[in-house]
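User:
Hi there, any thoughts?
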Amino acid sequence: MEGRHSSPKHSAASARRAVNNTGVSPEQRTVPGERDYPERIRRDAQVRIREEQAVGRTEEEYRVNTTKEKKRGSVLRMVLLDMLMTGMILVVFAFFHHVLPRLTAGNTVVQPISTVNVPATVSAQPEKTPEPAVTSEIPDDPAETEQPPVVDDGRTEWQRKFADKFTDEVVITENSYSSPNISITIDTFSGEYNGYFQTYYVCDIYVASMENFQTYFANGQYSYYGEQEAVAMARNSGAILSMNGDWCNNQKFGILVRNGEVYYDEPMEYDLCVLYYDGTVETYSPSAYDPADIIASGAYQTWKFGPMLLDSNGKAMTSFNTTYVIEKEAAPRSGFGYYEPGHYCFVVADGRQSHARGMVLTEFAQIFEDLGCVRAYNMDGGASSILTFNGKRYNIPSGGGRNLGEILLIAETPDSAG
């Protein structure tokens, strides 16, 4: 039994062998990895720091992304809300400005309150040149004082002045009309204008008498919100040429004179255009005229949509007395231009279509300056911009056009027609 137990001598020898084999005594031995503990702590700490930083970055990125998404969502909601509010405002405006007046007006007929008394110095029919007075006195030197006789051939002053424009007989082509009393030529311009494709029509007009220049209300009478199809109006009025006017019958204020009849005679905030019996045209800012003076001076036609397009020197204006939308929107346009008594023009520009972008007011005004007009005035536009010639539409209205309240027209007088 004793031989089975290790003796001290045997144990010491074993220990020595162990030292010799490993170089480390049993007393010096530790748990595996115990000597690397500080390094492991450092590595573990670094790992934890990196993990915490990664988690921190993730949380920060999450917060940033969440904030961005909230901001985007907030902006989107604000845009949608603005669009909704704008749409509601437009609907309410359209209802009160267009729908409700039509429902309540019932095409109420408005009668003129007076007729313009033409001043003695103004003649509705241009005066004929008077024949020289006959005298019984014999001049001292007939050769120096005798004037060539003036032949009274029945022509008006404008017929004599623009004799090369009129013809003895009626001559009609697809874009012109001439007679002893009227000369109309329509030129169509289609191509690039200010970097956009545009199409517009210039109607060059000469008349023998102011009676050849008329206006006509829908259905032949001035009624509040009355309207009629443009071609039907042209045919009913006997118009050779017609252009939409200023949609005057959606308003019950301002100064309105048509064919010498006065419907309203109050000041207003819009620019005014006046065609007088003597053939002159003037445009006025709201503070530059008095309705009583306008009427007393022989107003034959007035328009109040506006604005005026040329300054007092005939130069295209760059700022206008009108709304931002009317001024800045590229839209179909209609305008009236004046050169001199007896000589006028209608200009209609298509728009909102592939063949025509439409014009802003500065572009439209420039056309009248380029034509050489000294006065020009903007009429109603958009789908109302309609030109007719010989009983047919001549331009291509936006959206097929709309019914009109009134028109400007050129026509033969009853005694000269036929």
Remarks:
- The chain has two domains: 36-105, 114-410.
- Confidence is low (pLDDT under 50) at residues 1-13, 15-22, 132-139.
- The helical segments are 8-22, 37-105, 142-145, 157-161, 230-237, 291-296, 324-328, 361-371.
